[in-house]
Design a protein that fits this description.
With 144 residues, the chain is mainly beta. 0% of the residues lie in helices and 52% in strands. The chain has no helices and twelve strands. The strands form four sheets. Strands 2-3-4-7-8 form a five-stranded antiparallel beta sheet, with no helix packed on it. A hairpin with a 7-residue loop joins strand 3 and strand 4 (42-49).
Length: 144
């Protein structure tokens, strides 16, 4: 039996391991821009919550950016794909973990493209076929 479809995803997230506890939330300190470009001093440091987790293979876990694709029709010779892209909210907090502001970035610059057979290029720029019966797809992921 041939594989007909596959779904996979990539999550960009801020793990607890790079954060410090602020009240009862894990947050990461982000230094502000320099106060003076000549003396190297930094501006006000701001705190943003992480995703309150470590690595997980659960598709529903929180993330800054979630890129999910389902490639269907793999046995047809003309596969297609559908995608689901979203950004999680960014939460600024004070040193006690109290919320100051919340915003969600646009996912307009997050796309899967260029679904194709498995190929690469050699050092001279020629095309080299990859693993038979496999596909490749490109992901662009940018949010701010």
């Amino acid at each position: 039996m041939d594989l007909e479809s596959i779904t996979f995803w990539l999550n960009a997230f801020i793990p607890n391991s790079v954060c410090t506890l602020q009240g009862n939330l894990y947050a990461i300190a982000v230094p502000g821009p320099p106060i003076s470009p000549t003396d190297g001093s930094i501006g006000l440091t701001r705190l943003f919550t992480g995703d309150q987790r470590e690595y997980s293979d659960d598709i529903t876990q929180s993330a800054r950016m979630h890129s999910e694709v389902t490639i269907a029709g793999l046995s047809s010779g003309s596969p297609t794909f559908t995608e689901n892209q979203w950004c999680g909210p960014s939460n600024e907090v004070d040193s006690n973990g109290n919320s100051i502001a919340t915003a969600t970035a646009s996912n307009a610059q997050m796309h899967f493209t260029n679904l194709r057979g498995s190929q690469t290029t050699d050092l001279q720029g020629g095309v080299v076929d990859g693993v038979p019966d496999s596909v490749q797809i490109d992901l662009t992921g940018s949010a701010s």
